[in-house]
Amino acid sequence: MKVSVVKETAPGERRVALVPEAVVKLRTAGLEVLVESGAGDGAWLTDDSYAEAGASVVSRAEALSADVVLMVGKPDAAAVAAFRPGQVVIGLLSPLTDPDLTRSLAEAGVTALSMDMIPRTLPRAQPMDALSSQANIAGYKAAIIAAAEFGRFFPLLITAAGTARPAKVLVLGTGVAGLQAIGTARRLGALVSAYDVRPETKTEAESVGATFIELTGVGAASGAGGYARALTDDERLAQQQELAGHIARHDVVITTAQVPGRRPPLLVTEDALKSMAPGSVIVDMGASALGGNVAGSVPGKNVVTENGVTIIGAAGLPSSMPAAASAMYARNVSALLLHLVSDGALALDSEDELQAAVTITRDGAIVQPSLSDAGPSPAGPEEGVARVPGAAR
Ligand code: NAD
């Protein structure tokens, strides 16, 4: 059975779905691996390194015709047009935010498996959890870019030229990315506080070195599957107002808050921004075209407010660390692929809970029930915009 890796086509995307170590693993399992020439360029992985690992380096057309086609992101329109019925396509296909792609994959007759639909709480699916692996990288990089943009030190420094006090960093949202941001900011020497609307994250945040902030005006908002639920309007207002006081006391704020199926909640309002000292830095990991966690953030851009606060609209953070992100993604996607293979051939089983969750199209139809209500909505802030948790990162 031929498994291929194609070169990513999304602008700025530098990751690749398999690294040479993963090629060796798949070949040991009896699979033939094809790699599109140049697929690893963005992550400094040469065609030769794939060939040495036992892959055949091939043209794009040949890679697109393999039995199983692996990618990190989504296939472009030309790739979808090249697919033939019965092929298997695996990637972060964002089916909840891109229903058109899902429909076109169904029309192409391919079996599409989306890495962002992995059931994350299923223990055997954990090695396949690409959302967590990529969120870890994003959280780390968010702390690094905050430190790089901040015009002062993160650690306490005592020198002959004076003493620098440690930076005060606030992390809002302590899921996978937030916990990694806390740990990284702590390792850089900052004093870190953290807040999440799920109180059960308190011990996790404390275990990586943060002081957990508890708001008096907002209760627990834990939702299904370990995620947060959306807040009511009253809760949201109370949260924004109470958070503003904490935000004003910090030099750096890193926001990671997400609610599945919703726009990212607005946590840092314009008033909160006005209360921050000049030179403060905010990294908004929720920044998106629909709005982010911070008023006025723009994805992929730095915005400086009138009072001198820099808001970094963090976009594509995992792709900015392509070697690490590709190595982790390769482990995730190989684990899924090996789960689907028996004796060197695909053995798909729609009764398997894990496979049923990740399979979005098969035999010309959309087969994942949760996709029936997917699609953009004209509703107001934080309302009804389908999102795969973590996919935007
Ligand atoms: P996420 O990206 O959906 O959200 C990030 C964080 O934002 C979450 O902690 C959420 O509670 C928080 N948040 C949402 N709205 C908020 C608001 N208004 N104010 C403050 N914070 C808000 O989450 P994620 O990091 O992808 O995962 C969240 C959780 O899912 C994990 O912490 C874990 O409990 C669970 N999870 C479990 C497994 C597993 O069991 N193997 C794997 C991955 C994740």
Could you explain the architecture of this structure?
This protein has 393 residues and is α/β, with parallel strands linked by helices. Helix content is 30%, strand content 17%. The chain contains twelve helices and 19 strands. The chain has helices at residues 20-28, 47-52, 60-64, 77-82, 99-107, 130-149, 176-187, 202-207, 233-248, 270-274, 322-340, 353-358, and strands at residues 2-5, 32-36, 56-58, 68-70, 88-91, 111-114, 157-159, 162-164, 168-172, 191-195, 211-212, 252-255, 281-284, 302-304, 310-313, 341-342, 345-346, 359-362, 365-366. The strands form four sheets. An eight-stranded mixed sheet has the order 3-2-1-4-5-6-18-19, with helices on both faces. Strands 11-10-9-12-13-15-14 form a seven-stranded mixed sheet. Strands 7-8 form a two-stranded antiparallel ribbon. Strand 16 and strand 17 form a beta hairpin. Helix 6 (130-149) packs antiparallel against helix 11. The longest helix is centred in the middle third of the chain and has 20 residues, at 130-149. The protein starts with a strand and ends in a 27-residue tail after the last strand. The chain binds nicotinamide-adenine-dinucleotide (NAD). Nicotinamide-adenine-dinucleotide (NAD) binds at residues 120-121, 126, 129, 131-132, 135, 172-178, 196-198, 201, 226-228, 231, 256-260, 265, 267, 389-390.
